Amino acid sequence: MPRRIAVLTGDVIESRKVADRPRLYRRLEDTLATLAARHGGHGERFRGDGFQLALPRAATAMEAAVTLRAALIEHSEPHQRWDARIAVAVGPAEPGMNEADGETFIASGRALDALSSTPGHLALTLLDEAEDEGLGLLLRFIDDLLDGWSPYAAEVVGLSLGHDTPQPVSQQALAERLGISQPSVHKRLRAARWALLSDSLAYLRRRLDDREPSTSGPTP
């Protein structure tokens, strides 16, 4: 069964307006390092506000993209929101997964270029499948959810996505971690529309999981 990898290519939105760019870059690098370690991948920042994350399993791609954006939004400056455009490409694994001239890497970069000319901040390209209108609508929905987050909502979602246990983290555990009440955690999760986001990411994880490429996709 062919294994599929994912490549996330992105850039920080309006980074030149950020007053404390060194703090922004540290946060970006720390998040990339955390995600690379968590998923067994490789991440790096380049050209100032640009970045790339290669993951050996495609199933984790959208969760990683949301986690990365959540980290930036959470640490936004008081008068300027931090966020990023992220283009995800999924394709068959190639020898030397971290080779930047691989097909999946190139597709991710091209998707980011295309994303830059649209109002969207999230894109997904599947190299081994035909374009799926329903998948595109789901990505727009998730993008819209994230656009409405406050730093508090992003923080609680980031913690929910980053826990290490197989079972969902409880609201009480989140409350203890954040030093706030359980009702406050509930309010933040509701504001982030966590239930819908969690179900959407679970669907995408199954959709992108390692399997034979779809027979509906393009043929060589």
From TrEMBL:
It comes from the Bacteria. InterPro entries: Nucleotide_cyclase (IPR029787). This is SatD family (SatD). It comes from Halomonas saccharevitans.
